[in-house]
Amino acid sequence: MSVPEPMIAGASTDAAAGPLRVAVDPDICQGHARCWQVCPEIFGLDEEGHAVVAATEVPPELAEKVQEAMDNCPERAITLN
Ligand code: SF4
Q1: Distance 65 CA to ligand 1 centre (A)
Q2: What is the pLDDT along the chain (81 residues), one digit of tens a residue?
Q3: What is the distance between the alpha carbons of residues 65 and 25, in angstroms, rounded to a whole number?
């Protein structure tokens, strides 16, 4: 009997659907840097403190942290598909 994978809201965990992809909308991002604090492996900051994505494809082991970063973004600027 297999143990189910943790579900990520709004994102498919179906391996056939391919890797999760993360993006930050630069028109919405206000530079709170919460994403970077939660998951510096994926999020960086530009010279103005706005988020940049270092890797659009999210490794499975970082999916939970990216989800947490997304949940903590006050502007809802992060999307995960
Ligand atoms: S937490 Fe959201 S608004 Fe703040 S830097 Fe990250 S993406 Fe931008």
Answers
A1: 14
A2: 555 555 555 444 455 678 899 999 999 999 999 999 999 999 999 999 999 998 899 999 999 999 999 999 999 999 999
A3: 18
Does the beta carbon of 58 sit less than 6 angstroms from any atom of ligand 1?
no
Output the six-digit token pair for 51: 């988020």
Q: Structure pTM?
A: 0.80
Cβ proximity of 24 and 77 under 8 Å: yes
Ligand 1 contacts CB of residue 33 (under 6 A): yes
Domains of the chain by start residue, with CATH: 18-80 (3.30.70.20)
Residue 67, Cβ density class (10 Å: 0-12 exposed, 13-18 middle, ≥19 buried): buried
